[in-house]
Amino acid sequence: MQNPHLKKFFIFFLKMVDGAYYGLYNKCTNHSNIVITWHTVERGGSALIEIDKYSRTPIYEQIVNAFEQLIASAELKPNEVLPSVRVLSQKLSINPNTLQKAYAELERKGLCYSVPGSGRFIAEDAQSKVLGKKQELLQELKAIAEELRLFRVSLNEILEAVKAVFEKGG
User: Fold this and answer.
1) For position 96, what pLDDT does the model report?
2) Which own/partner contact pairs does 68-77 have at CB distance under 8 Å and 24+ positions apart?
3) CA trace torsion 155, 159, 66, 92 (10° rounding)
4) CA 72 remoteness from chain centre
5) What is residue 34's predicted lDDT score, i.e. its pLDDT?
6) Phi/psi at 2 (5° precision)
7) Low-confidence residues in the chain, pLDDT < 50
8) Which of 26, 64, 96, 109 could connect to 89 by a Cys-Cys bridge, CB 3.0–4.6 Å?
9) What are the pLDDT digits (tens) for 26-42?
10) 121 within 8 A of 79, measured Cβ to Cβ
11) Helix axes 96-108 and 59-72, enclosed angle (nearest 10)
C-alpha cells in the first residue's frame, strides 16, 4: 500500500551536455525527506541526493556527503559541471544559501572548482581525495576496534553495532 503522504512528481533537469541540461528528475517528499533522483541521458545511470529535513545532520553537510558519494562511485566525473545553486536549490526546495555553503565546503575540500561565468566543476583529483578520506576512516575504525578490544568488547558486539548502522541506512 502506498503512503498517502508521499507526493511524487517529475521535472526535467540536471546533466549539462553540450551546453544543454538533460535528464529526468523524480522528486518524492514525505514530510521529512526529500529524495531527488536523476537519470542521465549520456550514461544512462542515475544519481541520488537524499535530504532529511529533520536529521541532526545539517542540510549542507547532507549535500556535501551526497556529492562525495557520487564522486566516490564515479557517478560524477572530473570536469563535469555541477548544477547551479539557483536551479538545484529550487529542485531540492532548500535555501540557496544552504546550497552555496555546501558548494563552498566542496571547494574547500578540493572536490570542485569554480570558473567565473561558467559554473562549478568536479576537480580532476576529486575521486582520489574522497577515496583517501575512506582510507583515513578505515584507519580510525581500526584504532577504535583496538581500543574496544582492550575494553574486552567482543567481536560480536562490535559487528552488531556496525551492522545496526548499515541496516539503518546511515
Assistant:
1) 95
2) 68/111, 68/130, 68/133, 71/111, 71/122, 71/126, 71/127, 71/130, 72/127, 72/130, 72/131, 72/134, 74/127, 75/45, 75/46, 75/47, 76/47, 76/122, 76/126, 77/122
3) -140
4) 10
5) 54
6) -80, 140
7) 1-32, 37-45, 170
8) 96
9) 444 444 455 554 433 33
10) yes
11) 50
pTM: 0.64
Place of cell 541526493: 49
- Percent residues over pLDDT 90 in the chain: 52
- Within 10 A of 55 (CB to CB), how many other CB atoms are there? 14
Return the pLDDT at 147. 94
SS3 annotation, the chain: CCCCCCEEEEEEEEEEECCEEEEEEEEEECCCEEEEEEECCCCCCEEEEEEECCCCCCHHHHHHHHHHHHHHCCCCCCCCECCCHHHHHHHHCCCHHHHHHHHHHHHHCCCEEEECCCEEEECCCHHHHHHHHHHHHHHHHHHHHHHHHHCCCCHHHHHHHHHHHHHHCC
Output the nine-digit C-alpha cell for 80.
Answer: 563535469
Q: What is the Cα–Cα distance from 14 to 78, expressed in whole angstroms?
A: 16
CB 34 within 8 A of CB 16: no
